[in-house]
Amino acid sequence: MTVLEAPAAPERPRAQDEGQLERATERRNRRTYLALLLPGLLGLLVSFVFPLAYMVRMSFNQGAPDGVIVETFTLDTYIQPLTDPYYWRVTLDTFQMGVTVGILCVIVSYPVALFLARSTSKWRGLLIAIAIAPLLTSAVVRTYGWMVILGTNGLINSSLGGLGLIDTPLKLTNNMTGVTIGLVEIFMPYAILAMISGFGRLSPQLEEAAGSLGASKFKVFTRVTLPLCLPGLLTAFLLVFVLSISTFITPRLLGGGSVQVLATEIYDQTTGLLNWPFAAALSVILLVLFGLIIAVYQRLTKKIGG
Amino acid sequence: MRATIKGKMAAVAALSAAVLVLSGCGGGSEAAGSGGSATSGEVNLIAYSGVWQDQYTAAVIEPFQAKYPDIKINYASKRSSAEMLSALQGQKNNPATDVAIMDNSVSTTGNKQGLFEKVDEESVPNLANVPEKFQDKEGYGPVAMLDAVGLVYDTATFPEAPDSWKVLWDPAYAGKINVNAPPSLLGLSLTAITSKMEGEDYTQGIDSAVTRLKEMAPGVQTFAPNPDEYQNVITGQTVLGLGQNARGQFYSDQSNKKMGVTFPKEGTVYQINTINLVKDAPHSEAAKTFVDYALSAEAQTAFAKALFYAPSVTNAELPADVKDRVVPTDGSLNIVPLDVEFLSSARDKWTDTWKRQIITN
Questions:
Q1: Domain boundaries in chain A?
Q2: Which residue from A155, A176, B189, B291 has the fewest beta carbons nearer than 10 Å?
Q3: B135-139 long-range CB contacts below 8 Å, 24 or more apart?
Q4: Keywords on this record (chain A) (predicted)?
């Protein structure tokens, strides 16, 4: 400010002064931003970057029987899973599970999210709270709940048996069916939240306009509502996909040892066979898979947004 | 003025960062304590979780603390011996644990890796009551208790206990069986038992066993029973399964005999737990006092009564009704020997074989 008030200074020096002042302010601002960011960055460094670096380093060690870790630098831990059809199958199963759960979760959550996003009711806040209330219970408890519901003598089988619809109980648990059902329900609140926040461009006026121009309700939905919802649907899908492929508890508890995905494999290698280098390599592979998916997602959203 | 506010904010941010760093680095020094005395201080124990922890606490730890009120036992529970080994390996350079009770196949590995200390009668007098067969040849932690793999069954389906492991292959029970796959010791034991049933020497190869187990696999409801192998049978999810005799006997009582456990005629595999002193333990003197108490007739009898583990000492006198239900250690039971050294080399391979060839979706 003081510089601007200075009387009749020559043209160039004034511009120079202004430039200097701007740069100084910018530098000061940058310093302040950095100082404000510092606690968070340090926290991230201690809780995320260091462990991640440790894990990556661990993945180049050699695992010997009985948990002995040979400090070395080898690519064997990567070559083994990448050249072994078994681990390709596990990776593919993990990917398939993520896609299936993601799609199903988006399908069942969409009507709920759409209703909540468009609702003008005074109960809207309460309804949203109810929709995401399951998050207040741990995924372990909800998975155990599903074990009771889906089991041989569970609610579904005993009801169907009682109605005379089935003779032998359906195998709804200890397989991928059970894991998928459990995961879809467990991740629904996340999908709903992601969709509600992603439906920003949705506007009743646009729908009304389309309707007034003669579009049927179905056409309004397919040509106006759904395209406007797409960014929200994609975000929800990505979130559920990422959560699914990294989840461990539900595949472990509802999979009954028959569902082998990367997360359960990493757990077995870490706690059962104590082969930490191999488990670390699998974790890095999972992380790379995440990265690829997120890159594809960003491309896709840019395309839709653009 | 703005600059001053910004300056203040920056100072606050820097201060909070410093606090964060300090608090982040502050932990971890708690483990470093003095050696303490034999009758005071604390003992950090690592052992099994769940019902094992409950019963061991009630039968051994609480009476110990009544006897030595100045020693506090801190119990860190783990789901498996492998998890305990993993924790001890992580603390190798700065041990925080004093005593570990774990499976002998895993403790042998710990001995080899230099995680444990040798014990002698001077510091642990009750070692004199542990017969030679239950002592470590090199003087490491002795056997603290024994159990064996049993066949767990639903008493409504089987009013008479099944006498052969072959019942697991009976099509009548397909879909109603739970089998804990390796690396669980139950699955490893079943592999050895099946191999023996097939007349094969499992130290040389398990091809015949794998062929037989593949035939059983489609009838298996779960290879990782949850919450555990006993509750699955009690709740009727399955009618047959692998289990350990000790816990099986305990849950049989708990479920009002809805579930039973038996040793089939083809033989079974011992599950042996050793009690181990951690090398350079922070409270080694008090730890020795605890190990000595754990090997006393009093503690051994109490735990046998509570959870049906067979004592490893000669001077423990069990009531007849308990003696009948713990695994015999006098040679009267048909035992399939699963050598600890062999198991350590076979565990990875057998686990892999199960995953790739036996477990099917």
A1: 2-47, 67-305
A2: A155
A3: B136/B111, B136/B274, B138/B111
A4: Cell membrane, Membrane, Transmembrane, Transmembrane helix, Transport
Q: ipTM score of the complex?
A: 0.77
Q: Which CATH number among 3.20.20.70, 3.40.190.10, 3.40.50.620, 3.40.350.10 corresponds to the domain B148-270+334-358?
A: 3.40.190.10
β-strand B41-48 against B71-78: which pairing, if any? parallel
User: Are A46 and B24 inside 8 Å of each other by CB?
Assistant: yes
pTM as predicted: 0.82
Look up the CATH number of domain B41-146+271-323. Answer: 3.40.190.10
Q: What's the Rg (C-alpha) of chain A? A: 27
Q: Give the chain B residue whose CA is nearest to the CA of A34.
A: B10
- The distance from CA B21 to its chain's CA centroid, rounded to whole angstroms, is 38
Q: How far is B155 from chain A (nearest CA, A)?
A: 17
Alpha carbon of A240 to those of A189, A265, B66, B140: distances in Å? 10, 20, 53, 50
What CA–CA distance (Å, rounded) separates A39 from A35?
Answer: 8
Q: With beta carbons under 8 A apart, name residues in chain B contacting A35.
A: 9-11, 13-14
Angle, CA A283 vertex, CA A253 and CA A185 arms, to 5°? 35
* Sequential DSSP letters for B19-74: HHHHHHHHTT-TT------SSSEEEEEEEE-THHHHHHIIIIIHHHHHH-TTEEEE
Which residues in chain B touch residue A29, judged by CB atoms under 8 angstroms apart?
Answer: 6
Domain boundary assignment for chain B: 41-146+271-323, 148-270+334-358
- Chain A positions in Cβ-Cβ contact with residue B181 (cut-off 8 Å): 257
- CATH of the domain spanning A67-305: 1.10.3720.10
Beta strand B99-103 with B270-278 is antiparallel
The residue in chain A having the minimum alpha-carbon distance to the alpha carbon of residue B353 is A86
Whether residues A65 and B344 touch (CB distance < 8 A) is answered with yes
- Nearest CB partner across the interface for B237, out of A66, A144, A151: A151
- Ordered mean pLDDT values, 10 residues apiece, chain B (361 residues): 45 44 38 62 95 97 96 94 90 92 92 93 95 94 97 96 97 94 93 96 94 95 91 93 96 96 96 96 95 97 97 95 94 90 87 91 53
Which residues in chain B have Cβ-Cβ distances shorter than 8 Å to A80?
none
